[in-house]
From TrEMBL:
Chain ranges of the Calcineurin-like phosphoesterase domain: 1-126
SUPFAM superfamilies: Metallo-dependent phosphatases (SSF56300)
Gene3D superfamilies: 3.60.21.10
Organism: Halomonas urmiana
CDD domains on file: MPP_ApaH (cd07422)
Record keywords: Hydrolase
EC id: 3.6.1.41
UniProt KW Cell inner membrane keyword: no
Top-rank lineage group of the source organism: Bacteria
Protein name (Swiss-Prot/TrEMBL): bis(5'-nucleosyl)-tetraphosphatase (symmetrical)
């Protein structure tokens, strides 16, 4: 059995199928980790969602910011953005079944192996101040709200950049918003662990006093897999933790990449966008 981790699909369905064929992926034998943002911007968002759901237990999928945006539009009263490509999903006959499945995806998946120790995947990364056990517990808090009866109200209140700094005594919507923002939107932090939400480009665009989250040390040593940051082009320069950037910008015309978690080998197919 081989486990592969794949970066942001963002509607690149043809490339997803081509990559699975190149991997000779067999859901009866292999496992797949998808780093979130299955949908939006690319032309095949509906097909990506159906493909991922059809893989069943063979695929572990974490929620990304674009996946949450789809849920917020469909069930939280948010408006579509001009660049969104969500209309085919919103008008699909199996819309509710797809949304139900997506809404119950986790924010964090993890495993332990003799070769790699603890492996953790989230969409955007892991706050350096959060040990893995704390991060896993916080993920469960937000997942419970997303899957519960108050999901619509939370999806409506989810958007916002405050609070930008984690405190253990945060509660209510601010606490949940901070958790979701860390797991799905984080890029640059300051030394206190406060997030910047404005900078979205490469490392040369870091705001003064901020650095990418993976350039801060941790007290534990998990292998961290993340997507979200296409401008990194799969690299994590000057990282002070074991981190693997999986988003290699398929939707922006570059490539879709899988990481073999057993060998560390990367396999890519070119974008068709």
């Amino acid at each position: 059995m081989t486990t592969y981790a794949i970066g942001d699909l963002q509607g690149c369905h043809a490339e997803f199928v081509a990559l699975l064929e190149r991997l000779d992926f067999d859901p009866r034998r292999d496992r797949l980790w998808l780093a979130g943002d299955l949908v939006n911007r690319g032309p095949g968002s509906l097909a990506c969602l159906r493909e991922a759901m059809a893989l069943g237990e063979a695929a572990s999928v974490v929620l990304g910011n674009h996946d949450l945006h789809l849920l917020a539009v469909a069930r939280g009263g948010a408006r579509e953005n001009r660049k969104d490509t969500l209309a085919p999903i919103l008008g699909a006959p199996d819309r509710e079944r797809l949304l139900d499945w997506l809404q119950t995806r986790p924010l964090l998946v993890r495993r332990t192996s003799a070769a790699q120790g603890e492996t953790v995947m989230t969409h955007a990364g892991l706050l350096p101040q959060w040990p893995v056990e704390q991060a896993a517990g916080l993920a469960v808090e937000a997942e419970a709200r997303l899957a519960g009866e108050g999901a619509g109200a939370f999806l409506e209140a989810m958007y916002g950049n405050e609070p930008a700094c984690w405190r253990d005594d945060l509660d209510g919507i601010p606490r949940l918003r901070m958790i979701v923002n860390v797991f799905t939107r984080m890029r640059f932090l300051d030394a206190a662990g406060c997030l910047d939400f404005a900078a979205k480009e490469g490392l040369d665009r870091a705001p003064a006093g901020f650095a990418p989250w993976f350039q801060y040390p941790r007290q534990d040593d998990p292998w961290l897999l993340f997507g979200h940051w296409a401008a990194l082009e799969g690299e994590t320069p000057d990282s002070r933790v074991r981190a693997e950037a999986l988003d290699t910008g398929c939707v922006w015309g570059r490539r879709l990449t899988a990481l073999d978690l057993e060998s560390g080998r990367r396999i890519s197919v070119p974008s068709r966008q």
